[in-house]
């Protein structure tokens, strides 16, 4: 009996593996015949055909077009249906929130911004749910094709995505999914905003293996990427970089301590030093303002110290993302890299800085992509 049971389990595992390989091959090839699939996967044609039929029935694959004839009957081409499933992502910020919808390739189908300040109230979540429903109502897909809604927010979130462990920025510590889900028309999960941003970066940059994401948004954020996956740590988060202390007894931070990276390297910290919106600060600086140039160089020096501190623990590449990086030109990146290298106490290879592929907000699409990854990984 034990031998039969083992054999049955092995057979089921093989079927599952074949199913997954067929789906992922069609997904990656962007159009392929079943004959080519059979050769590419070293899998029998009947096995390939059976799996394709199953995925066609699920609406994930469709036949569209014919291959060039090589003398015989033209083979049909199978394509992955990018909008067979979609996912909703949202980022909740102090002053506004954004809703995006992405397809199975992570393409943004829709993006909307709503100028509603965050409030931990039923009225706020009711409006959020209503706008999510409105955003999805214009799509051609059915309700059962919507995978769910991932809500990114500025706060440390439990591993199961059901509660906020620490949310001082939005004053939402202790927020639970039970307060949100009743108003959201689809299955819902919570996610830390910087984790969502890092998920988007990994998705968009397939060559990304090990890196540290530094998100220079209104508030500073960080995420650790190891082996192409966002590292979450054990209890809280692996990358609450913003609360590493830069200057003991320095500027006050919202966490209640003093001298945190947040108080010096966030976009808001720069704006406070500048005394004006960054949309005004940078053009004036580019036109030759010595005072603004000094403020900017001081900011980059503080950021370089922060990066070098992290570098002493993890010597890898650093992705500069968030709202602030869209104001930075190539010379700024070169200057920042030079400052980091100067902070290093010993001779080493130059630091590798990489610009984020997202011009501003990556958290909302990243939140949605986390659901796409989960769906594709279920096969």
The name of the CATH architecture of the largest domain is 2-Layer Sandwich
Strand content: 15-25%
Outline the biggest β-sheet.
5 strands, mixed
Q: How many domains make up the 3D coordinates? A: 3
Mean of all residue-level pLDDT scores: 92
* Termini Cα gap: 29 Å
Secondary structure: number of strands: 15
- What is the overall number of helices? 12
Which strand order do you get reading across the main beta sheet? 6-5-4-7-10
Order of SSEs, N→C?
HEHHEEEEEHEEEHEHEEEHHHHEHEH
Structural class: alpha/beta
Features:
Nucleotidyltransferase, domain 5, Arc Repressor Mutant, subunit A, 5-stranded mixed sheet, 379 residues, alpha/beta, globular, 3 domains, disordered N terminus, single chain
Describe the protein in words.
The protein has 379 residues and is an alpha/beta fold. It has three domains: 67 residues, Winged helix-like DNA-binding domain superfamily/Winged helix DNA-binding domain (Arc Repressor Mutant, subunit A, Orthogonal Bundle), CATH 1.10.10.10; 129 residues, ATPase, nucleotide binding domain (Nucleotidyltransferase, domain 5, 2-Layer Sandwich); 149 residues, Nucleotidyltransferase, domain 5 (2-Layer Sandwich). 40% of the residues lie in helices and 20% in strands. It is built from twelve helices and 15 strands. The strands form four sheets. The protein has a five-stranded mixed sheet. The protein has a five-stranded mixed sheet with strand order 13-12-11-14-15, with helices on one face. Strands 1-3-2 form a three-stranded antiparallel sheet. Strand 4 and strand 5 form a beta hairpin. Helix 1 crosses helix 3 and helix 2 packs across helix 3. The longest helix has 28 residues. It is globular, with a radius of gyration of 24 Å. The relative contact order is 0.11. The N terminus is likely disordered.
């Amino acid at each position: 009996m034990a031998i039969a049971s083992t054999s049955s389990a092995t057979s089921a595992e093989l079927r599952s593996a074949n199913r997954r390989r067929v789906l992922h091959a069609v997904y990656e090839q962007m159009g392929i015949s079943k004959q080519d699939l059979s050769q590419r996967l070293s899998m029998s044609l009947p096995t390939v055909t059976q799996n394709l039929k199953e995925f066609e029935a699920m609406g994930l694959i469709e036949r569209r077009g014919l291959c060039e004839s090589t003398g015989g009957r033209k083979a049909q081409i199978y394509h992955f249906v990018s909008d067979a499933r979609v996912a909703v992502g949202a980022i909740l910020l102090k002053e506004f929130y954004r809703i995006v919808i992405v397809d199975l390739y992570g393409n943004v189908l829709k993006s909307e911004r709503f100028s509603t300040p965050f409030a931990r109230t039923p009225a706020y979540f009711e409006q959020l749910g209503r706008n999510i429903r409105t955003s999805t109502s214009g799509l051609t897909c059915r309700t059962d094709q919507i995978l769910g809604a991932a809500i990114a927010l500025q706060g440390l979130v439990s591993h199961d995505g059901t509660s906020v462990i620490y949310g001082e920025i939005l004053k939402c510590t202790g927020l639970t999914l039970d307060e949100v889900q009743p108003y959201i028309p689809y299955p819902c999960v919570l996610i830390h905003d910087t984790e969502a941003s890092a998920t988007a970066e990994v998705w968009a940059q397939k060559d990304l293996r090990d890196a540290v994401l530094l998100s220079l948004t209104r508030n500073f954020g960080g995420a650790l990427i190891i082996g192409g996956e966002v590292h979450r740590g054990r209890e809280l988060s692996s990358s609450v970089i913003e609360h590493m202390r830069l200057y003991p007894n320095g500027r006050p931070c919202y966490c209640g301590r003093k001298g945190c990276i947040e108080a010096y390297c966030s976009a808001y910290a720069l704006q406070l030093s500048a005394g004006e919106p960054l949309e005004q600060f940078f053009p004036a600086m580019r036109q030759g303002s010595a005072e603004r140039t000094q403020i900017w160089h001081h900011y980059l020096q503080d950021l370089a110290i922060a990066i070098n501190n992290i570098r002493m623990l993890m010597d890898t590449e650093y992705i500069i993302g968030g709202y602030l990086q869209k104001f930075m030109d190539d010379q700024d990146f070169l200057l920042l890299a030079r400052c980091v290298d100067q902070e290093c106490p010993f001779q080493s290879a130059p630091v590798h800085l990489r610009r984020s592929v997202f011009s501003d907000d990556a958290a909302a699409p990243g939140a949605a992509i986390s659901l796409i990854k989960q769906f594709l990984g279920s096969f």
